[in-house]
Amino acid sequence: SPNCARPLRRVMPSDLPDDARLSWERACLARARAGDREAFSELYRAYAPRLYQRVLLPKLGERQAAEDALAESFRSLLEQLPNLESETQSIWPWLVRVASNKATDVFRRYQRTRRAVANCERLLLPLLGSAEPEPNPDRERLAQVVMRLMAELSPRQRQAIELRFFEECSRQECAERMQLKLGTFDVLLLRSLRAFRALWELQFTPSERSAS
């Protein structure tokens, strides 16, 4: 009986012949340009898994980075919908090109973030005294704490630390950019580090350390 029939497998655009797939894609693009969110979701469901598995994950090697690049790729598609109206071929090659560029951008951004976090740790080591950092510190949380504490410093103190530790400028370059003599910059940096250490010790009181 019809009630016992097995459910049909959902037909994906990749299952369609080229002409039918291109017609489906053009229809989705037209609907998406008219504000139909479901049409854009159809495009995402059709192309996102393939873009993730074939382009982004092999390039980046990290799930989170690939997901970030995927989201940025489809954000670009959404922004460029009006310009794709006259396309006479599939948007797949365009998506591959955009995704490859986004992967490069994400990789560079992750590299900068890793370097900034490493600098955070470098900044903390001389400030912790006898307290040792955790064997496997949560680097993202550490960076967030450091950034929050940095925001509590005076603008001059924050600039001194950022130039020396985050931008990795030489002491002489730091002094020049802050329009200070080298000796004056050294004094400012020392005071800035002491102020940061005081904030750090308030943030991580003995009771909080034992609870974490």
> What string gives the helices and strands in order?
HHHHHHHHH
From the alpha-carbon coordinates, what is the Rg to the nearest angstrom? 26 Å
The main pleated sheet reads as: none
Q: What is the helix fraction of residues, given as a range?
A: over 70%
**Global morphology:** elongated
**Which regions are unreliable across 5 or more consecutive residues at pLDDT < 50?**
1-9, 129-133, 207-212
- How far the N terminus sits from the C terminus, by CA atoms, comes to 62 Å
Question: What can you see in these coordinates?
Answer:
It is a single chain. With 212 residues, this protein is mostly helical. The longest helix is centred in the middle third of the chain and has 33 residues. Helix content is 71%, strand content 0%. The N terminus and C terminus are likely disordered. The N and C termini lie far apart (62 Å). It contains 9 helices and no strands.
